[in-house]
Design brief:
Number of helices: 7
Strand content: 35-45%
Structural class: alpha+beta
Shape: elongated
Strand order of the largest sheet: 3-14-17-16-15-18
Largest sheet: 6 strands, antiparallel, barrel
Helix content: 10-25%
Oligomer: single chain
Radius of gyration: 41 Å
Distance between the termini: 78 Å
């Protein structure tokens, strides 16, 4: 054993082991690189978004604001005093029905408030009427027309008081027995039958020929609401009656559009206030400042008797079918082949053609080429261009006749994703706007409801595999 001399430094070198590559490391490296490539490709490619086909409708509608014109008879007060209404607003009164009373001294109010008359409560029907009035205002409220809030306030106040007074109509019989009181209270009955209303705006005698632009943009327009216990002077307007169920709606329109609608005679409209629909008879009026369209109705007058201005949507063209986004619509080119050259495989039950081919020895032969059929028109089938080429000669089954493929045509369709790849399906567009199309459903080569299609047709290639 050799001793190391004191103070002598010995260099110790580390032995490097050789790199031993084995099949496991190689496989691991290949898999790792493959995963990195797949991740990079995933983030690089545009995701394919699906769209579920649903039934729907589109319409080329336009909203107009019109003035409601009715046969309105305004009744003026025959005496002075405090008015109390007993006929419900918006309901029909007959000639001779009690509408209102005029209390010259205010003693009627004291009598109605007397404890002897008992407690007045509203019935379920009356409460429902009041709730309906509130809901209608809420749905039709326009923040740009805040003045309508005050009309609503007065209307509710009047409705509440009228409903309460209506519950006390039986007390009128007691009043009639009190000679002293009846000398000071005047009872007024309806002189016309119709729908009673307790508001006026000065447009009661307006006719279609009198309407101009100022009626639609009048900052001085004022609607006056009549209220219970209001002090009237003889000659003041006290109420009005809409005597006829026929009424009309008038609004400005472009001359050309008006002439087009005039040819229709009747058009369908939707009232935005309650979404009710009705048919109106069309007529045109030419004023000094433009053309005005009048729609005449024979019903629903009572529904809108409290409205002077109404927003309506003209339902001109309405198409129903399968609703798809326009981004899903694509065009694709196909070969046109006469139907007598299409054959069916006996084993696979698929469709295809018999293509003429040349063997290596120069002899002519045929091969069966399976191809999908995308449409049929005028005795010709639309075949996929990926399985056939321009110039291919195909043979008519059981004959020696041939046809050279060259004719092409374009189809409009979408890419169906039901089978996991971009399968082109022809569509027949019934109507289209800027965002959606309505296509015919249940066609032989088209779409069905709940089919899954590619949302953006430009994001895929024909027959490309897609993933949800």
């Amino acid at each position: 054993m050799t001793k190391q001399s004191p103070g002598k430094v010995t260099n110790i070198k580390k032995y490097r082991r050789p790199l031993n590559l084995n099949i496991g490391m190689i496989i691991f490296a290949v898999i790792f690189i493959y995963i990195l490539v797949c991740v990079a490709m995933y983030f690089k490619q545009t995701p394919i978004a699906p769209y579920v086909v649903q039934e729907g409708f589109l319409s080329t509608n336009k909203v107009y604001t019109g003035i409601a014109l009715r046969n309105e008879v305004v009744v003026t007060a025959q005496d002075s005093g405090h008015v109390n209404y007993f006929a419900r607003e918006g309901e029909r009164v007959a000639v001779g029905n009690l509408v209102y009373t005029v209390d010259e001294t205010g003693r009627l109010v004291e009598y109605l408030n007397d404890d002897a008359t008992g407690e007045n409560t509203l019935s379920e029907r009356e409460l429902s009427e009041l709730k309906s009035e509130i809901v209608n205002f809420e749905h039709g409220f326009n923040p740009h027309n805040f003045a309508s809030t005050y009309d609503f306030k007065f209307s509710v106040q009047g409705t509440v008081l009228r409903l309460a007074n209506h519950a006390l109509i039986d007390s009128i019989r007691d009043i009639n027995k009190n000679t002293d009181l009846t000398d000071l209270v005047n009872f007024h009955k309806a002189s016309h039958s119709g729908i009673v209303e307790y508001w006026v705006d000065g447009y009661e005698e307006l006719t279609p020929d009198m309407i101009n632009a100022s009626h639609f943009n009048n900052p001085e327009y004022k609607r006056t609401q009549m209220l219970n216990n209001q002090l009237l002077v003889e000659g003041d307007k006290v109420y009005k009656v809409c005597t006829d169920e026929e009424w009309s709606l008038v609004f400005p329109i472009e001359e050309q559009k008006g002439q087009e609608l005039l040819e229709e005679e009747y058009i369908k409209v939707r009232f935005l206030k309650n979404q009710d629909e009705a048919w109106g008879q069309v007529s045109l009026h030419h004023g000094t400042d433009g053309t005005y369209l009048e729609l005449s109705f024979t019903n629903s007058m009572i529904t809108f008797a409290r409205d002077r201005y109404l927003d309506v949507e003209l339902i001109l063209n309405e198409s129903t079918g399968l609703k798809i986004p326009n981004s899903s619509v694509a065009e694709r080119e196909f070969f046109l082949v006469p139907e007598e050259y299409i054959t069916q495989s006996g084993s696979t039950k698929t469709y295809g053609v018999l293509r003429e081919t040349v063997l290596e020895n120069g002899e002519l032969s045929t091969e069966y080429i399976e191809t999908s059929i995308y449409s049929k028109k005028d005795g010709e089938y639309y075949l996929n261009t990926m399985s056939l080429r321009t110039g291919d000669r195909i043979i008519k089954p059981e004959t020696s006749e041939t046809y050279t493929i060259s004719k092409k045509a374009t189809l409009i369709g979408v890419y169906n994703m039901n089978k996991g790849y971009a399968d082109f399906r022809q569509i027949e567009i019934l109507y289209q706007n800027d965002e959606y199309s309505i296509v015919k459903s249940n066609t032989q080569y088209g779409l069905n409801v709940y089919d899954l299609i590619v949302l953006d047709a430009a994001s895929v290639d024909p027959d490309q595999f897609v993933y949800e």
